[in-house]
Amino acid sequence: NSSQTTAADNKKASGAKPQEQEEEVDIDLEAPETEKAALAIQNQFRRFQKKKK
């Protein structure tokens, strides 16, 4: 049927970036190392935000 378009045609027409596939990540959110890493990332982000102003 010529009235139907494929996903590839839609991407070309809209100029949109290809959709990223969500990959399953196996991270233990209760692990102490994960908490420490999250806090470190948050602190760096806050510093970045303060610097940006």
TrEMBL record:
UniProt superkingdom: Eukaryota
Compositionally biased intervals (Acidic residues): 21-32
Region (Disordered): 1-32
InterPro entries, alphabetized: Calmodulin_Regulator_PCP4-like (IPR052142)
Family statement: Belongs to the PCP4 family.
Protein name as annotated: Si:dkey-46i9.1
Organism listed in the record: Xiphophorus couchianus (Monterrey platyfish)
